[in-house]
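Protein Record: Sequence and Backbone Structure Tokens
======================================================
Scope: a single protein chain, as residues and as a discrete description of its fold.
Tokens: labelled as protein backbone structure tokens, with as many entries as the chain has residues.
Position: the record begins directly beneath this header, with no further notes in between.
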Amino acid sequence: MKVSKYLSKHLRHQPERIGLTLDPAGWVEIDTLIAAAAAHGFRFTREELDHVVATNDKQRFAIQGSRIRASQGHSIEIDLGLPPVTPPTYLYHGTVARNLDAIRTDGLRPMKRHDVHLSADRETATRVGARRGRPVVLTVDAGAMHRDGHVFHVSANGVWLTQAVPPRYLRFPGPR
């Protein structure tokens, strides 16, 4: 298993599986993480960790002093402490065609995560959607959502977060 996948699993979803306790904002001491991973048969060095954090194309992790956390995407209760921000007029969400009927009915929901993840540009949303098949990019009228009282946050790696996107704020590509 690659270090980045290991970090995602244990910093976003299942820290308890290796005996980690994250603080309320999702941080854990790096030395504690490395020791816990080694105790559970997965060894990596601080240098390898630093390399993964620095070169991860999505900048999924943040280091602050001697601590590390996942930037977003948690399925466990974490308060990232991100202030509310005004979004751009439009944001984008990458998905695949098989999800469109449910999205037309229910909008975008966080599913197993705490927030819906949105992209600032179509290219990023296309890459996100392509992870599950042929991508479909939806346009989110974030400006209207914000005017209507929906709250947005932006993570350290530029992912836009909101609790949900009702269908009325979505624009679907092409004919139905």
